[in-house]
Amino acid sequence: MLADSGLPPKDGAAPYMTAPAEIQLHFTSTDMSVRQALIRLLAQLARHVPDQDDLGRVEIVVAEALNNVVEHAYCSAGMGPVDLRCRFGCGRLFVTIGDEGVPVPQAILVPEVVQAPLPLPEELPEGGWGWMLIRELTENLSYHRVGGRNELTLEMLVSIRDS
Amino acid sequence: MSTISRSGFQIVTVAETRIDAAVAIAFKDQMRQLTDGGAPDVVLDLTDVSFIDSSGLGAIVAAMKQLGKDRRLHLAALMPNVDKVFRLTRMDTVFAIHDSVEQAVGANAG
Description:
The complex is a heterodimer of chains A (163) and B (110). Mean pLDDT of chain A is 86; it is low at 1-17. Chain A starts with 22 loop residues before the first strand and ends in a 6-residue tail after the last strand. Chain A has four helices and five strands. With 163 residues, chain A is of the alpha+beta class. In chain A, helix 2 (52-73) runs antiparallel to helix 4. With 110 residues, chain B is α/β, with parallel strands linked by helices. Chain B has one domain (2-107): 2-Layer Sandwich (Transcription Regulator spoIIAA). Chain B has helices at residues 24-35, 54-67, 80-88, 101-107; strands at 2-6, 9-13, 18-19, 41-45, 51-52, 72-76, 96-98. Chain B has a five-stranded mixed beta sheet with strand order 1-2-4-6-7. Chain B has a two-stranded parallel ribbon with strand order 3-5. Chains A and B meet through helix 1, helix 2 and helix 4 of A and helix 2 and helix 3 of B. Chain B: GO terms for molecular function: anti-sigma factor antagonist activity. Chain B: This is Anti-sigma factor antagonist.
């Protein structure tokens, strides 16, 4: 590795003056396709987002949102189509996830204000952290139910590599 | 996953690079098999794990609970994004977290 010169690495990626093009992925709601979609998304984002911490936050947030689609939106239907779109703007990354599953309960989208004390180790829950992670790592969340579809947009602050 | 005994500790090394919803149940089952009847202190070596989601975190919590009150699950060598998930969910206060397996074994030797 060369010393960090502050310049973008010469990895063959074409320099651009404007925001990078939108990234789109379409897949079926299974745990394995979520994993593969995340790996593909992160590989594409890494060309535009240099900071590992930014990429890490995006991976956690998108993973949890996609897990919710698999486990809750499509839980009764088995599986269904998922689409994911990413766009950059104003120092932010906007990730919109669409699915045709059941609506997201409103109560889940309301931010938790009070942090309850943790239970004893032997009484700890073995899940339920997904929305907590999403809320902690996003600047903004918006949810719409449009024509039988869920559309969740996650907004995160990320530094985009400029040329 | 593989396990060895070292200085009275059971070290369990995770061969996966991701502990996510796709492997969480299998992870929990393997942890049960590997740690059954082992040493009181179990160190989970996460050196190769670059990503964990809430399902994976749930599986590690389940593995801790499976050990029971008299045994302890230590976590070693967390990569930054794995560490982040533990901190944000406050699970870093529940587990003994060490920089490396060596440190986990050494810190508890005295």
